[in-house]
Specification:
This protein has about 400 residues and is α+β, with helices and mostly antiparallel strands. About 45% of the residues lie in helices and about 15% in strands. The longest helix has 26 residues.
């Protein structure tokens, strides 16, 4: 049985996640496609993710790809997370993950429509809302959630998400209906209003914005396709890593691995899997350092993280499993980073990685400070380490 050491996995991570020094710079849509998307729940995350991997990256590059070239698109998928995807991957993403998310969101919305007395026939309410939204977008073009709600009586209605609680109160149902339509693939987030660090999208009809990216896939075919792409970037990995990443089931993961002919390997004492053509030894990588944002796709890439996280889990992840900003040295997390009152990036090292590492990481902090040019990025899901910088 092929054995992968921790050092070899870290070297593969560096090269396959575009973090190794001296590599040829890749277009940002290829980076997103190779990693099966970039986390976008925090609007700033995909921008900082690409800055860490593309030396010439500018904010306008991603904005143009999303809203002008349309070579990337935001879509709700795995683990009910918002991602930036290559549109060519949407058929597989939709079948393997988004349909499951849409089904869960749809069921919850229909239940709340009934509880709130808005509609006894929730399915009918949602069908009418869908037709009204698509009709409005066809005539008027990109429209914000607020403007859709104001223009369409079919979206009217409120509910109380937490009756009797201080944080409850009447809340509009329209945004939840749009989330369902988005997860179903009917609409997508189009032109953006406001700064790149904010979330103020206008909705557009998916077909009109993207065209037809490809024929629909079955859930099994979509899962097999995505697991294959994921293993090329994240493998070797355990079956539990794969199940967690996709928000899937053990049965579905087992079928996908079987379809791919994945090979079982030894991950320093734990069973794991790689693609059959991906068993060659990984050469050593030159020393490297990186400053990654909260929810970065690499930091969040595996469920079993000890091989790159070590004893720092409780400092850089919150209690819900969301990662804050992290500092990496040679394939492992050695701390975090934050911005001070002057918007200067500061390191929060949890261990001493050595003089060379400190020099490299300090330089990267200066470079990120210069690139941000005074823009402050408070983490949307601050880790305990992030919170300690506020005290």
């Amino acid at each position: 049985m092929r054995t992968f050491t921790i050092a070899e996995r870290r070297n593969r991570l560096a090269r396959r996640h575009f973090l190794a020094p001296g590599a040829t710079e890749k277009p940002i849509d290829r980076i997103a496609a190779t990693l099966i998307g970039l986390h976008a729940s925090d609007p700033a995350t995909p921008f900082l993710t690409l800055w860490a991997r593309s030396p010439s990256f500018r904010v306008t590059d991603l904005s143009e790809a999303l809203y002008e070239k349309r070579s990337l698109v935001k879509h709700l998928a795995m683990r009910r997370t918002l991602w930036v995807f290559d549109p060519a991957d949407l058929p597989a993403v939709q079948a393997a993950a988004s349909d499951r998310v849409a089904g869960a969101e749809r069921r919850r919305l229909i239940t709340d429509l009934g509880k709130a007395g808005v509609a006894a026939d929730g399915e009918g309410w949602l069908a009418r809302a869908r037709a009204a939204v698509l009709g409005h977008l066809e005539v008027h073009g990109p429209t914000s959630s607020t403007d859709l709600r104001k223009a369409l009586p079919e979206l009217a209605g409120t509910y109380d998400p937490a009756p009797g609680k201080s944080y409850g109160g009447q809340t509009h149902l329209a945004p939840r209906a749009l989330i369902v339509l988005g997860a179903q693939g009917d609409i997508v987030r189009g032109p953006h209003e406001g700064a790149w660090t904010s979330a103020r999208p206008k909705w557009v009809a998916a077909a009109g914005w993207l065209g037809q990216p490809g024929a629909p896939l079955t859930a099994e075919a979509g899962q097999a396709q995505l697991v294959g792409t994921w293993l090329r970037a994240f493998g070797p990995a355990t079956a539990e890593d794969i199940r967690w990443w996709f928000g899937s089931t053990k049965t579905a993961v087992g079928k996908a691995l079987g379809h791919l002919g994945a090979v079982e390997v030894d991950l320093h004492g734990t069973p794991g899997y790689v693609l059959p053509e991906d068993l060659e030894p990984e050469p050593e990588c030159e020393p490297w350092g990186a400053l990654l944002p909260g929810l970065d796709v690499t930091t969040m890439g595996w469920q079993q993280r000890d091989w790159y996280l070590g004893e720092h889990r409780g400092q850089v992840f919150d209690s819900y499993g969301n990662a804050g900003p992290t500092v990496w040295w040679n394939g492992r997390i050695v701390g975090g980073w934050y911005q001070d009152a002057a918007a200067e990036v500061r390191l929060q090292l949890l261990e001493d990685p050595g003089r060379q590492a400190r020099e490299v990481l300090t330089r990267r902090a200066r470079e990120l400070t210069d690139w941000l040019d005074g823009v402050r990025i408070p983490p949307r899901f601050p880790s305990p380490l992030s919170k300690s910088a506020e005290r």
